[in-house]
Amino acid sequence: MKVCILASGSKGNSILVAGSKTNILIDAGLSCKQILDKLNQVGVNESSIKALFITHEHYDHIKGAGPVVRKLEIPLFINQLTFQAKNYNLGRIEDVRLFVNGKPFTFNEFLIEPFSVPHDCVDNTCFKISERDSIGKLIILTDLGYPTKLVKEKLKNPSSIILESNHDFNKLINGPYEWWLKQRIKSKNGHLSNLQACELINEIIHPGLKNIILAHLSEENNEPEIAEAEMVKILKERESDCNLYIANQNHPTNWIEV
After folding, report:
1. What pLDDT does 133 receive?
2. CB count in 10 Å sphere of residue 60
3. Is pLDDT above 80 for 88?
4. What is the pLDDT of residues 104-118, one digit of tens each?
């Protein structure tokens, strides 16, 4: 299994996961055209995409969902509350498959484990994804205000983590956002800071962890160099040889082996 982050940030998010036989998308926060263009950039034929999974109803995760599933004629996997919250924006979808957070299910060769995390939406989902015959496990962990006990439990054994590192606290507080928005971002229903991401990795790091991909970085309140330097410090202190990547709003990452 391997993963490529097509786009990550407040302007739109989408993740491509490739299994041994099946390609799937997690979120479609860009236009359909943009997503298809990015698939082409990473050498993936759009006809190989077999499903779209949605984490939550915020525009930067669901913007292109309806057009994408209609264009590619694929099922939409979404939980009930999220579907009810935004189904009027999705348009007509022939194949909606509702999942329940906390109840694992399979899709082709994938085992999908959806779980709830705190965020200012109706029922935000993060995913643990693995293949039945592979030891690699991918955690997608973005758009959460703080790491709950459940989150830490899920992080015991993944080989790769896509982890939110949204903002540098000082840049956020001293930045241009209005105070109410600063409060929202740093709240328990907001977004993980660089410091929170580092503290979480320091707590859950284990020998089987191969890759950390920092994601959902704010263009206003963070800098890739700051997020990277803080995480590198933790990895050096723990003497970890884990690979570190930074996802980008405008350019897909390279393929990363889970």
Report:
1. 78
2. 20
3. no
4. 999 999 999 999 999
SS3 141: strand
Helix (H, G, I), strand (E, B) or coil at 190: coil
| pTM confidence score | 0.96
**Residue 120 in contact with residue 184, Cβ under 8 Å?**
yes
Beta pairing, strands 105-107 & 137-141 = unpaired
Q: Cα(34)–Cα(71) distance, rounded to whole angstroms? A: 13
pLDDT grade for 132, boundaries at 50, 70 and 90: confident
Domain ranges of the chain: 2-257
Residue 166's pLDDT band, with cuts at 50, 70 and 90, is very high
CB atoms within 10 A of CB 199: 14
CA distances to 51, 93, 214, 234 from 54, rounded to whole Å, are 10, 14, 19, 31
Find the length of the chain.
258
Tokens representing 153 are 């439990």
CATH 3.60.15.10 fits 2-257, yes or no: yes
Is 151:117 a contact under the CB 8 Å cutoff?
A: yes
List for the chain the helix, strand, coil content (%; round to 5): 30, 25, 40
The helix (run of H) or strand (run of E) holding residue 213 is: strand 211-215
The answer to whether residues 205 and 238 touch, using CB atoms and an 8 Å cutoff, is yes
Planar angle of CA 86, 89, 94, nearest 5 degrees: 95
Residues 150/116, Cβ–Cβ less than 8 Å? yes
Residue 62: strand, helix, or coil: helix
DSSP label at 167?
A: B
Lowest mean pLDDT among 9-23, 59-73, 86-100, 214-228: 86-100
**Average pLDDT value for the chain:** 96
